Amino acid sequence: MPTESISAQTSGAGRPSAAGGVIHDLGYQRYDGPRLGRSQIVAALAWHSFRSAFGFGRGARAKIVPVIALIAICLPAIINAFAMSKGQARIVDYDTYTPVLRDLIMTVFVAVQAPELVSRDLRNRVLPLYFSRPIKPGDYPLAKYLGFTAACLVMLEVPLLLLYAGSVVNVHGGSAVWAQTRALIPGLLLGVMWAVSLAAISLFLASLNGRRGLATGAVAIVLLLSYTLAEILLQVETQSAIDGPTVPGAPPPVSIGQKVAGLFSPYTLFDGVRRWLGGTNLGDNVPKVGAFGAVYALVLIVIVGLCLYGLAARYRKARLS
Amino acid sequence: MRASPPAGPAGPVSVPGAVIEAAALTKVYPGGVTALAGLTVAFPPGVTGLIGANGAGKSTLIKVLLGLLEPTQGMAKVLGYDCVKDGMRIRQLVGYMPEHDCLPADITATEFVTHMGRMSGLPATAARERAAEALRHVGLHEERYRQIGTYSTGMKQRVKLAQALVGDPRLLLLDEPTNGLDPAGRNAMLELIERIGAEFGIPIVVASHLLGEIERICDSLVAIEAGKLLRADTMDSFTRASQTLLIEVEEGADALRQELARRGLHARPYQRALLVPIAGEDTYDAVRDAVAALGVPLSRLEQRRHQVEEIFRDEDNTGQPSQLEAADAY
What we know:
A: mainly alpha; 68% helix; disordered N terminus; B: Rossmann fold; Alpha-Beta Plaits; 14 strands
């Protein structure tokens, strides 16, 4: 070792190996420093997943979609702040933000980035390397879920915080600021609901397929189709409610059909829960749900639960090949 | 190995310094497939070849050793830790190189090995340093900043080895490390493994279905077949037991064989020649006398460097070619 290490250090000329590489020998160093525990490794993997959700640690191409999506979703907040500086009132709401735009951008984001987190590892068969490390098989999907939920939170909450910042600098007086803050908080909480749910649904769907394109397609199709289906059902049911018997002078009552229609897509579920919790702004055309909103919340919880269960089941068996 | 009898009764093993011990290790999969059938063996430090045809139980054994699969019966210990109870601790101490491709294409080797170092429990800075070092040890230099997708098979195998090495393992489990490599790449990989074993002082288990390939870098061998131990011993005792004399005669090979049998030597045909195990000095005398007695024209008499695979063939008394040989016949 000593003789080789000297020649390698001084000249950089090692012994050429058959595969074309050069082997230098500076001696092997043992590692006696601290080692992370299981929870810290999971945290490291979650952080790594969070970074990959925005393309960090990958080539420039991997950053295109997430960065454009983040800019696009922040634009309304920026435009709003600009408009407010010109004396306009706040036109974007904290709880709904920009209903259709946000649905669309989040769909693109999770459809493209969820496969980035899970399908690549399946496709490249990296999982055996994770399973042979000091974590449990369930830790892998857990870390991916935590990381991706955090990434979705950035997508959902950063625009709200920008909107808030833009509003606060343009209003005057403590009560106005307080009003903005009070409006912001439900928005942030709803953002958490969105992030927790979308991450679960998209990671589960993406984990079913190692082919990235197919995984993206699966996530996008499920989210878009379900949304379209729910909207069509809503239209149909709304029409029949209008055509039905009405009390003169009163708005047509919301039929049970309209309420049920909203159960068919995550985005209408989000909106139903929002209205159930007291949101008044118009969102994804979900009618006033009233007490039926509890069903929305229940269905959403069941869907998220099933997706998380499915995601965990996908990785329960530690395969080495 | 030194202390574990190949066909002995399955009892608790206790081998001083053994890095892996298994006693009556049995794994029956839910479908009824028996992958391990009462395997009792101990792996000494140094480089140990784990030889077995596909389906012999190598992969199942590796999974059990990594604590990822619970055995149906029996026990296994790695570095003194129980595979069922201390799987997590074992995975902290063992570096594993899978048989199949397991590398993402669109990230650099440095980033990948660093990440895998983190997953082995290294803090961020240590992971970066050790990743650079591990890649250097396997002979990747400037290339390590390139995306893995641009690598040759040989380079990818090196990255796989580097990720096993990054966490400073106390034991390396390498599953078919020469898979997919050309002869030159194979030699380079085997040299590397030999160096890691000898110079870094890390015990290594090399699983392979090609005995002839890895035997030259191994200090000892464990051969399994159908989930059972076929034979385990040091290379030294393998070669000691494997001295043979090759006798080639122009004609009368059959007569010579009978003559040798009469003199108590079991000769077996090998191509056009005969192979006789060397028991001692007497063997040479007996062969000389037999040839002289028959007056057959002797054209070659050679002490052979024995290939270990032939020993298995010799010991396979069932008359059926074992799976091991079938896989190894080249």
